[in-house]
Every structure is written in structure tokens, then in C-alpha cells.
Amino acid sequence: MKEKILTMLEMQDAMNRKVDAEWHDRGFAWYRAIWTECAEMLDHYGWKWWRHQEPNITQVRLEIVDIWHFALSAQLLASETPEEAAGQIAAGLTHPAEEADLRAAIELMAENALRTRSANIAIFAAMMGLAGMSFDELYKTYVGKNVLNFFRQDYGYKQGSYLKTWFGREDNEHLAAILEDLDADTPNFDKQVYERLAATYPG
Fold it and tell me: Is the dihedral of CA 138, 94, 127, 11 positive or negative?
């Protein structure tokens, strides 16, 4: 687990540097990104008692992965080294907070982010468990989404020329199909994902 956590920390640092080479010193509000993603996740899960809602677990899990990007970034800033960050993350993931309801866990994650301006990994682990998401699934989906973010930047996302929809499907849907085909434990998994995206992209 710790090796995969280190891999994700390295990938997150690389992504942050691609957006802003001085990201460590910018004071970005990672906690704000976390609580707003929590609100989106709650909407996907459903909470409105005045109309029928079915939980969209696929979207809930994607929001969990989005939060993970920001949680990794916050943990990197809060730690002296990536190894220290990985150790703290592993401890939080293996000792999830005690919570029996996903809605309550989401709210607890948002409340903690607002109060401490940080990311609580034990609460994050509770959300994962209540959403039925394993660490291996988190790793595979995170790596895939990280590669897609790099791909977007490389193909003009910041300049506004990137095509979000290819052949009638959003890029996230193409990514999901690619991930189903690949084994996350194979060497150069991230490179395989990028190559498959490049081969599919029409631009």
C-alpha cells in the first residue's frame, strides 16, 4: 500500500507542478476544493426527501477520487517528506473513522476540512468504505484520472482548444473503458493509459 501511496503522491506533485511550478508556495485552498467536492458527492448520493432519488454510486466514487487529488496535495504540504506523508496516509486509510452512514461521513469530511483547513484521511477512508470502494480501486481510478488531467493539459485544456467529447462520449467515459481493459499492477500502467488516450483522441 505504501508504495502505491508514494506513487500517487509523486503523480500529484507532478500534476500540481504542471499547473503551477511554484504550487508549494502559492497557498492554494485545498481544503476549499475538498468541501465543495463533498457537496457534489452528496448531491450524487441523494439527500432530498421531497423527491425520488437513487444513489449514483459511480459518480460518488468519482467524487471520492477527485477529493483524493486535493487530499494528497494537502498532505504533501503538511509533511516534511513524501515518505512521511505516505506513512500518515497509510495510517489513516487502515484506521478509518467510525461512521455508519455515508451522508454523515461526507458532511463530517466537509466540516473537518472547513474547521482544520486540512484533509482527514481517516474520515476519507470511512467515505470510501461506505461507498464500497477498495484501495486498489482508488489507486487505479486515481492514476487514470491523473493521466487524463495531464493529457488534457498536453492537448490544450488551458488554452481552451481541448475537445472534452470524442465521438459522442465524454473523455471520462473513454477513460473508464480504457481502465477496464488494463491491469493497474503492470509496469508503466500510467504510460499505457496515456498511449490509449492518445490513440483514441481525434484532435
Answer: negative
Q: Where are the alpha helices (DSSP H) in the chain?
A: 2-19, 30-45, 57-78, 82-94, 102-116, 121-130, 135-154, 171-181, 189-200
189 phi/psi in degrees, rounded to 5: -55, -45
This prediction has a pTM of 0.89
How far is 200 from 109, CA to CA, in rounded Å? 37
pLDDT digits (tens, 9 = 90+) for 131-178: 999 999 999 999 999 999 999 999 999 899 999 999 999 998 899 899
Residue 179 vs residues 4, 22, 82, 141, 182: alpha-carbon distances, Å: 17, 31, 26, 8, 5
SS3 131: coil
- 111: amino acid identity, one letter: E
- The full set of domain ranges for the chain reads 1-133, 134-203
Pairing of strands 165-166, 169-170: antiparallel
Sign (positive or negative) of CA dihedral 52, 54, 55, 59: negative
End-to-end C-alpha distance for the chain, whole angstroms:
37
* 169 Ramachandran zone, left/alpha/beta (phi>0; psi -120 to 50): beta
1-133: CATH superfamily: Type II deoxyuridine triphosphatase (1.10.4010.10)
* DSSP designation for 168: T
